[in-house]
Amino acid sequence: MPGRVSDAPFVGRIQQLTQMAARLGRATRSEPQIIVVDGPAGMGKTSLVRRFLADAEPGHRVLWASGEEFEMQLPYAVVAQLLTHPSRAPGEAVERPGRATWPGPILPDPVEAGAVLLDVIGRSQGPSPLIMVVDDMHWADTPSLHAITFALRRLRVDRVLAVLVIRDTTDPRLPQGLRRIMHDDSTLALTLKGLSVADVAALNCAVGPARLPRRALSRLHAHTQGNPLHTKALLQQCTPSVLGAHHAQLPAPRGYERVIAARLDECSPPTRRLVNAVSVLGTSSALHTAARVGTVPDALEALSEAMRRDLLEEASHGGAPHVAFAHPLVRAAVYQAMEPALRSRLHHAAAGIVTEPQMVLQHRVWAAAGPDPDLARDLSTYAAERSREGAWSAAASASLASARLSPQEAERTRRTLKAVEYLLLAGDISQAAEMEPTLRAMPPSPQRHYVLGHLALTTGRLDDARQELDTCWESCDPATAPETVRCATEQMAWLCLIEGDGNGIVQWARRGLALPPGNRPSFLRDSLAIGLAVTGRHEESMHSVGHLPDAGPPRARHELEGLLARGMLRLWNGDLGAARHDLKQAFDAHRRGGLPYAALVALGFLTDAEYRSGRWDDAIAHGTQAVSLAEDTDQVSILAVVHAFAAFPLAGRGEYQAAEEHADAAAEHARVLSDVNDLALAHTARALIRTAQGDHEQVVTLLRPLTSAEIVHRDGLDETGIIPWRALLVESLIRTGHPEEAEELLADYELRAAQRQRWLDLAAACRCRGLLEASRGRAKEAEQAFRHGLDHGDGGEACWEQALLHLSYGTFLRRAGRRSEAVAQLEPAWRTFDRLRAMPYLERCRTELGGCGRTTTKARTARHPVLTAQELTVARLAVRGLTNRQIARELMLSVKTIEYHLGNTYMKLGINSRMGLVATLDPK
To answer: From CA 809, how far away is CA 392, in angstroms rounded?
Structure first.
């Protein structure tokens, strides 16, 4: 890549440059911008970006990374460039960074890598915007694509302009989240087409030996369709007489390779060896490395000649000299023109010189002339090693290469199937789905049925998943293939979990746990505990996770397996603080080499735990994060759950539009999956919205179908503590004049809650009993029920249900004329509603207090008058002593966004320091 933009001729593209400059201006005002530049090879995409950078005002910092065809299988090759190469000002040389790998021995998951990138983006900003360029994204490695997607989706008030350069925005390798970003209305899409005739004339003046007449320029433009690279090549290759003669045949644009070959043939042998060596190493490399690969004794002299021939350019990085091709097509032409034997020898030489283990293997792969059993075995071993570290993407790449080099069909099949499994575990759903036709063309086998079942389940095709997994179970012998059987039982347990079949969950989990332990983290122990819990076997369920330490992060794999389930059990039992701890630990641990889908389940239920605990700022932050992560990684089977939980606190706050969007999305995903539990969650989310709005008729319409005996698998619906639909339905039945139906449902609810001794459900049932008895005019029984509900709450931490109890009891007392007693109940409810900004409930409480002769202040007291949910979340973390960078990592936002929220908070509270924040806000 050229060192300075001004060294290369550039013509046209005035409109595009103007649009890009306008977006840069908006980024200066802390409005993060994204520009996508797409078009065919040779259309001048990179040149446009470099011209834009050259024209930018001084002061902007630039981070530049580029995809590399030879590094597509190197995890985080692109992101590592952004992390390990310092930003540059546009006046400095803009170069292609040398090869970079993730700075550390353990590869993170894309979420963690994206968070690190987000931190770098935040620290690289200044008074002027940061310009982040990702060139040749069509050659970016898949983990980098996911990490970049994660970072881009979390830019809020950052001074950042991201420029994404790609040939085709519909490339199936792109994650769904990145495709949505590229096609969003707020993204500036610049699709480059050919130059105009006037632009070709300008290019002729810049590079041609003589001015061509208008007719010749029009002929050249028509011949090349305005492709800048092809046009420039012909202007340099052909004489004016050839270009101007109407009878002369111009070389075809696809003959560009011949143009490059002609230049290379004119070079001396050492220069040819150097250029060939660089092409084998990629589009750029260290000069001394290329010299060793090509056995070039005087590398600087050879480089000078290659530069004179416009084949290579110097790209110094402040240390050892680096060399780069002027354009990827130049490198492609050189590489493809080499004789296969020479290409293989150079790759063999490179394998003995490069140091990264994966690149050593990769060069051996490129050097291979055909199937190579030893290399295939080494790649398979490498894939297994990376899988044990949870580096699923690297394992998938190595396993696919191993399959291609395996001489035996059975080995090719086995390793291909393993590669698709690794892709699924990596969350690379789209690439795994692309390989489904290949898998279906393979001979039937238990492993094939398992992988197809896993893929079908992940993409939401439950019937297909059951058929494939059942076939795997029936056709596989656990004694000869225990790993395949264990994995199949794990997926069957997950399928039963989605369908709400508690007994099925237990049956399949026990079958899997009876087999020898596998080589990777498993969800079987979690499935067993959840299945036992939803079928009412609480003590047995807790015993199944009794091996876990009481506190602290998991230190080994066996301490992770079951941790998510224990958090869910504690949540359902009302042990809210312990539940939040377990679920947070499970989320963090599964992100670091565990199971991606388990991490998202943990984050979803953490949102629910925070909602029930009355920690709604955290719940909203984590719910939004869970939805974003599920969408970023195409985890279709989890989207309904996380959308529903995200709606809960928003409904309570009266933020109806946002809550409706989440509830509708949950319902749609549940409908696609035909999942009764997900549908119940979606309807519960909608019912919470209607309850807050006072539309109890609609609540009955939404939730009454959940009582139907026609629902086959009712375990998740009938077990108390899991989906909070009963109390909502009972209350609405009472308020809409259906006391008999309410009594029948409530009696069953009370019985189940008493059997499980779940205090949250006991308190909710008592509240409903009080409402029902009050509606019947039985004041004594109503008051007794309300008091029993408060007694149940005395044993747990302060939570949302307690506030609802105080409101219901206070309302009952006020209507009975016992105003002073009513105030004693309504005031704690008011304080909780005010703290949570539960506006619909706050207004009801205000009305009741007004009926007692008590006046109240406006919602949001002087403690934090108008802070948004995000501002409150950031402020509370700051009060706890976290730095801006630590808060950013916790909330997965950029540092600039944290600074923005704190600045707004200081202004609203009339303070200017964190000490003032501590003094103003209650740390609790």
So the answer is: 54
